[in-house]
Structure formats: structure tokens, C-alpha cells
Specification:
- This protein is mainly alpha-helical.
- It is 67% helix and 0% strand.
- It has 16 helices and no strands.
Length: 428
Amino acid sequence: MATESSVLPGSASEPTPVRRLLPVIVPALAVGILSALVLLGISLLAEKLQDVLWETLPDALSVGRYSALWMIVTLTASGLVVGLLIRAVPGHAGPDPATTGLVDPPLPPGAVPGLLLVTVLALAGGISLGPENPITAANIALAFWLGRRFLPGTPTELWLSLAAAGTIGALFGTPVAAALILSEILASRAGPGALWDRLFGPLAAGTAGALTMTLLAHPSFDLSLPPYTNPHWGDLLPSVVIALAGAVLGLLAVYAFPYAHRLFWALKHPVLALTAGGLLLGLLGALGGHLTLFKGLDEVKTLAADPEGWSAGQFAVMAVVKTAALVIAASCGFRGGRIFPAVFVGVALGLCAHALVPSVPVALAVTCGVLGILLAITRQGWLSLFTAAVLVGDAAVLPVLCIASLPAWLLVTGRPQMQLHEDGTPLR
């Protein structure tokens, strides 16, 4: 019979950190590669279908590709089809997306095919959501199912963290993003070993996911804006003001979120809720223009390529329309993430600030706008700083961004999040 001392920390039978971490490497690499391949496959399918919906079909019907009529029809039809599929597929494509976050417990494996299918349709149909939440959920479910099958007894938390890190690494093309996000999650949880011990496996998975995506798809977040070459004290005030403006706009979306959700689900049926949501998104697209459709990454590059091509008022309209579209899409039942649409809002807001005050460097204005909106929408400090900085690829903005993040964080911390409990009340 084992004695109590045999399981005490520091006893001879306790595995050393190296012995605990080495067996994690191979599963981490496998999960990271699988996560990237799932993301890449879904992205490619969505792009092919997007070409059909927004080029082949309107051309064949002699309708303008991004005419107001076509946007309204396509987005309404997308809502109807997604609603019918959610009603029909096993597991109903997962739980209500308004109640889920970026990293959640594993879904039943049977819900994964339906979740991926409706994600493809939403991405292709022009819905203002990104792929991050549903792809991460699908990869966590797959990793958990495969892991328990081939390595029974392995803790659920391991597969969850590996799949989340692999997916996030693939999404951003770097394992740093995964490490930063998971460090915030892991720091709040009890567990053996130092934080870097607990990040060891996820960092390996994130590296494998990022390398796989980089080798196969060459993703880039750099907006190719003019570099921020001459930092000076006068930049501090506008950076704080722009970040606060982004945070305020994000908080407006956060506070509107439960009310929008309540209105859609008062319809008592997901098909009706999603069809109505698609119609409203089509009307918003007609108001804001086709650049306010889709997840927003390609569209922000179009905006950044010609910062003088739109007026401050036009940038402001796009920011407000995209914010409203994000609230509607996330509350009516479409499966998707909020990070990438929020980036579009922040870029448009920053370009608006630059158009109003041209002396504010465009790279600084854009990064501060993105920082503020992401702090409010995601409540992830490291993610917000990283995403804002990576858009310009210029380390010179980091000190100013860190300063701008402080008042913006004071504004958003402790307030409701853009996520609901199952009873519809906001998560804090």
C-alpha cells in the first residue's frame, strides 16, 4: 500500500517537470497541425462558395455583384438556410453562440459537422463574424474525442488548451497570440508547475498550427500603413482619446447585445430569428457598402491601402454599421467570432480620426482604434495589444499603445461582457 509521502510534492515518485512535459510534445504537434488543417479547409471552402454567391450568380443573373438588392437577398437567404440547417443537423450546430466564448468545454462530436457547415455558409454569405469561435470549438471537440480514444485518462484541460492554441496560432500565423491568450486563462486557474510549464504544450501546438498555416497559406495581418517613425509626447493625448472612443463604441455594442438577443429569440424559432437577422444585415450592408460585409480582414486591407479614399464621415458610417452588424449577427444565432469584425471597426474608427486630424499618424490612429474596440469586445488585454500592434508590424507603437490601454481598460473592466449566461443575463 502506498504511503502518503509517496505522493507529496518533492517525493521520489513525483515526476519531474521534464518527465511531465516531454510526453506532451507529440500530441501537441499533432493537434496543432490538425487544427490548422481544419481552419484552412473551412476557409478555402468558404472562399469558393463566396465566389459563387458574390460573383458567379450575380453575373449569371445580370445583377450587380454588390448592389443593394443582391446584398439584401443573399444575406436574407443565408439566414434562412443557416436557420434551417441548425434546426435539422445533429446537435443543432452547438449551443446558442451568444452564450459561448473563444475557449469553451468540448462539444459532442456529433455537433461538429453541422457547426462547420453553418460556419462555411455564414463566412461565404457575408455575415459580419469571423471563423475563430466555431473553428476553435470544432477543433477542441475533435482533439478531445481523438485524445480520449488514443490516450485515455488524459485530462480534458490538456486537449482543450492544445486545440485552442493550435487554432489561435493558425488564425494569427504565430504562436505568440496563442500564448498570450492562454496565459490570461491559465493564470486564473490552479494547476501544477510554473506558468511556462503549463504553456509548454499549448506553445508547441500553437507553433505547429502557425507553421502549418504559414507554409500552406502565407497569412498576413500587416496593413502596409506608413511606419510610425517619429514618436513624440504630442501623440499621447490623441492615442488615449482614440482608444477611449473605440472602447466606448465597443461598450455600446456590449450593452446592446442582450437586448438584441432578447428581441430575436422572442420570435421563438431559430429559422425566423436567423432570417430576420440576415435581412437586417442585408439592409445594413446596403447602407454601409459591401466593405462592411464578411469577417473584415480583406476589407480592412482595402481601407488601409487608400486612407485618403474616403471621408471622415464615410469611415464613421462604416464603423457604426459594422458595429451594428456585429451585434445583430452575434445575437440572432449565426455561428462566428467577434475578433475580426471588431478589427474592422477599429481600423475604420482610426482612419476616421486620421481624416479629422491629419497630424495624427495613421498607423497610431488605426492601432489605437483597434485596441479600444477589442478591449471592450473581448476583455482580453494581451490579445488586444498584440492584434493592434501586428497590424502595423512596427514595435515603435507599443509604448504608446500600452499607455493608451490603461484608461481604456479602466473604462471597460468590471462591465458586462459580450457573452450571455444561458438565462440571457450578461456575463461579467
